[in-house]
Structures are given as structure tokens and as C-alpha cells.
Amino acid sequence: MSISVDVHLLSGERAAVEVEADASVESLKHCAQSALAVPSRGRLLNSSGEVLDGAQTVTEADLRSGDVLTLHVNQVQIQARKGAFAAILGDGSVVTWGNATFGGDSSAVQEQLRDVQQIQASYTAFAAILGDGSVVTWGHADYGGDSSAVQEQLRDVQLIQASFEAFAAILGDGSVVTWGSAHFGGDSSAVQEQLRDVQQIQASYKAFAAILGDGSVVTWGHADYGGDSSAVQEQLRDVQLIQASFEAFAAILGDGSVVTWGSAHFGGDSSAVQEQLRDVQQIQASYNAFAAILGDGSVVTWGDARSGGDSSAVQEQLRDVQQIRDSFEAVAAILGDAQEQWQLIEKQALRLGCSAVHHFRVPQLAFGIRMIRNLEQELERFKAELVLLKARRQAQRQRLATRCPNARGDDTQAKMIPKPTLLILTTTALSLILTVMNNLLNTASQQSAPSLVEHSGSPGGEAFRDSDVDFFVERLLQY
User: Which Gene3D superfamilies does this UniProt record tie to the protein (predicted)?
Assistant: First the structure.
């Protein structure tokens, strides 16, 4: 017995698709993608906004004739590094902007950037995986922007990871191809024979670590940055997940314990908390510290105290922690009640046909708000220092006037009194940055709110358009 369902895109296009009741949801998705002539990457959602499991049959997914489904294709993704951005649009094309030297200009490879599935960035270069498994690179050649030396090997690429100046790609057969600066892990020839059946790769500033199918780990790159794991190699068994700080790695084993290596100052030495690292579920890293969530929802931290490695001041509050997020030099935990609220927001956004609001706008707005708060704190600190320096300067002038009542305002001694020029410039710059970010966030939030209302109840409504990306580009260029 077969059923017929209507499948909608966010653009409003739709197609009727007929499949057998015992067919898989994955095959239904492929039929819909063919009928709608869209790229092969996406998710199928039912009328309630829930993502359908591709492994289930149509019957198991409780689908019936006449059901209206939504196909989300190539959600907008953004990658950014020093001075440049790259965004994958809904049709699989790419828009770049920012400093051309750092990858902000992709015009030389623009015709090749079709059906892009993933983008990864080094410090000043980008690498994109296409639907056919090939790779396109651009940006600074020395930082991985030139992959010509390994281009013939880059076939059936599944995943790309990046250090500061190099890339590593996992191929479909589990082997690895690297390029970029050799000092930053761009040369894996010393361990190439060991790189078989690779499941996951993680990168620090100058090194890579790969988990193999048997749970062992292979590392390469700069030894001081975690590229040499020989000291803990015997402990690296049944590894499930690896996280990296700037110069160190942390691995979660199958029994929930943790193994660390690399620079001790960057979290590579967890001996002080080793006994506490039991039943670890998740690890997150800041610049030079780590935080681990245990099975009971508590948190253990180690590394540089100034970068989140010391959580003693808030330890009593760290209960029922669900997720940990990092900034450049700090970590933040999402507790259970906040996690539930976030899931409700996500579910409602999906029901309204607005998954892009969750996957693009909300994270960017949250990041922007966090940055504004940090900048405001810095601005207040600089203002306080400026007031203090001005007060000291005035006091010096008064003392000088008392000692030398006939001294003119341009007296040599007066000129020797330090001027707060740097603080004034810094304060002014921070104020300007805050103004720009506030303007951008206000505009973005004003656009986001109407989109939730405008497309409410419309499964085929377009919640996020390519023109929105153009709008953000234009706004950024204005500043």
C-alpha cells in the first residue's frame, strides 16, 4: 500500500510525493529532494515541526496520505575567523565578505562553490566540502587556502577540521589528508600509516588528534601543543570524544574518565581534579581551561583560573547542568530549567517554519549580546581609569602651581605630566564598537520578531531568505 504526502520548502515550493508504506523516511526524503530539485542535504519535518527519523519506515513515523511535511534544505551556516566571514545559503552557494587576504573574497573559486555541505576555517583561509565529496579552498595560501598539492586526494571527503594554519580532512574510507603549514599539523606523513578508520578529528592551535575506530588516538603537529601524546598513549583506550583548548587536549573514555595531554598551563594536566573526573558526559574548552559535566549534573574545571579553570566561586550553583558553552576566555553553564526553556523556543520555532531563527539569528544575537556585555564592562573599566588618571593629572597640576606660581600652562614640567591619550582613544573606540553592535542587533532583532509572526502557521512560509544575508553584509560594510 502506498501513501501520498505534500512536501513543502520554506520558499513556498511544494510537491506531491508517493511512497510505499514500508519505505524508509530517508527514501521519502530523497524522493522529495528529487521532485523539488534541491541539494541532497536536509531534514524532513512532520506537521508538528518534529524532525523525522530517516531510519524509521513511513508507517513507524505515523505518516498518512494527505500529511503536509516540510523539507529544510541547507540551513544557513556561517563560519568566521580573522577579518572574514563565509555563509552557506539555502541553495548550497556561498557568500563571503570581509578582508580579502583572510578569505573574504572567494571570487576566484565562486563558480566551484555549488552544493556546499560544510565550511571550515583556519585563521585566514576557508575550506568547503561539496556534495560530491570534493573540496574547494580559498584565502591565505600559507594558512591552507591553497590545497592544490593534495587536490587529487581530496575525494569523498566526509569532514574537515582546522588548526590555526592547517586543515585535516577525513575521507570516506577513514583515511586522512592534510595541507597547510607543516608546523601547525599540515603534514601528517609521520603518522600517515596509523591514520586508518578515523572517526573524529579535533584540533588545537598547532596540532591535531584523531580518534580511530578501535578507540585509540593518533596525534601529530607541534609536540608542545598536544601533537605528542606518547606520555599518555597507553591510557588512550576506548576514547569516545576529544576536546581541545589552545595548547592541550582532553579525551573522554568509555568508562567516563578523562585523559589530558599538552601544555599544563592550558589544561593539559588534570591531575589536581583527576579523582573527581568520573562519569563525565561532556567537556568544553575555553582558551586555556576545561570544564566537564558529570553524570549527576555537577561540573569539574581545571586549567588557567582566569579563563574558567577555577569554578569554586559558583560551585554550589552548578547543579543539574545540561550544557556548557565557552567564550574565548570563559565558560558558561546552562542549567536544567534554562535548557527546558530553550527546547520550548526551538520547538515553537520549528512549528512556525522558522528553523533558521534558531540556527542563525538566535545564536548570533545571543553572541552579540554577550559581546556587548563584555565590551560594556571593559568600557566602564577604561572610563574609571580615565577619571582616575585625570584626577591625578589635575592634582599634579595643582601641586606644580603651588610650587611654581609663575609657571605658564605650557611649562616644560607641566608637559612632562603623562596624558591619558591611549585611554581616551581606547574608550572612544569601545564606545564606537558598542554603538555599531547595538545598531546591528536592534535591526536584527526587529527583523527576527516579525518573521516569527508573519510566517506563523504557514508550513511553506519563508522564514529566512538569501536577501537577509545580503542585508547583513550591506549593514556590516556600512560600518
Answer: Regulator of chromosome condensation 1/beta-lactamase-inhibitor protein II
